Amino acid sequence: MRILLAAAAFAALAAAPAFAQERSAEELAFREIYRELVEIDTSPSTGNCTRAAEAMAVRLRAAGFPESDLRVIVPEGRPDDGNLVAVIRGTSRRSLLLLAHIDVVDAKPEDWARDPFTLVEENGFFYGRGSADDKSMAAVFADMFINMRRENYRPRRTIRLALTCGEETSNRINGVDYILNHHREWIQADFAINEGAGGVLTEDGRPLMFNIQAGEKIHQVYTLEVTNPGGHSSRPVPENAIYHLARALDRVSDLTFPTELNPVTRAFFERMAPIVGGETGAAMARLSANPNDAQAAEFLSRDPSYNAMLRTTCVATQIDAGHAPNALPQRALATLSCRVMQSTTPEAVRDALAAAIDNPNVNVEIVRRRDGSSPPQLTREIMAPVERAVEALWPGTPIVPTMTVGATDGRFLNNAGIPTYGMSGVFAVPGEANAHGLNENVRVDSLYRAREFLNRIVRDYAR
Ligand SMILES: [Zn+2]
Description:
With 463 residues, the protein is α/β, with parallel strands linked by helices. The protein contains 13 helices and 19 strands.
């Protein structure tokens, strides 16, 4: 995933977990799968997803999966962008999809303290590119499938697995999108479990909350463009493309979209209120009780993480203007990155931008339009197994629904009508995992416990 949610409120450096535990043979077998996945470089510059997909296929075959129940799907003309799909067939018509991406962000070995493509276990942490994002979940799901097959597990609900490429970077074929368009039967399901949220630990390593992600904002890209005939810079005229654009951007910087709560964000603020406490907690309680409480919304909007959950946001990210130091600019262009709430259309945001700018010389355009869908519902069917597993593994820990203000592959599935929930069960101190950054890591104990969590809920859903 691309954005850590509401991390600001808890960001801190944590003490390392105290001691190593004895691991069972099953846990060590899982660790070996995880090690293999982390050690296959799947980054876009130097790596290959197909190798990782094939490696997992070899393991599934060895566990007894027939060829009819697994497949490595390689997009045509893209030999490095392979994906693995597999199925454990149930006795009912119900189905569930387990999704994890196997591609990772580039990692420059010379910048890392340890080799990014060697799994290192040190002081209670696993280090390596993808150790958290998202090879932790990919390894848990592969291991789960292997064990289910070995024990001849016959669930009522069909369980599907997709380990996909292309989540992290746009220069790879997105596996979820590709499979939906070409081999949809392999991932069709009543609902899906994906990355997108884990658990939050306090600085001293106690579980603070369990997060379940339901829904994402929609990333839309807009441009503001001004063109005019230009001319010699020795003879300035008022109609200057750069000045028009600068005034337009100034207006955009003052534009605040209205607060919009949905069932997920409302539940988020309600559950967070007692956890956060103080003035912020009180504002959360007021807002969740009354979504029209403008004062509470204004107070919470001062925190960038909460602000992003409360409304559509647009921010200037790139600018390009003029063509010579001695010429009047003929063209000035700015790019805006807008994160749009699900109930708002891209066109409505464009119209709001144009109205705020209020200058016919500035052309506002949608350059990347993505469809959105309302957040999936946190039904009893979804929540009951989660509540049971959380109570067993982290007794008393509150469950807090979240909406992702960035994006995961869940958006493709949600748009395709497959409600997708983000829950890894991996607990960390906010900011600690450093996904996408240097020395990415996951707590050893957190990973083994997440494995236990995911096994419990999948078997509970599949009963
Ligand atoms: Zn990810």
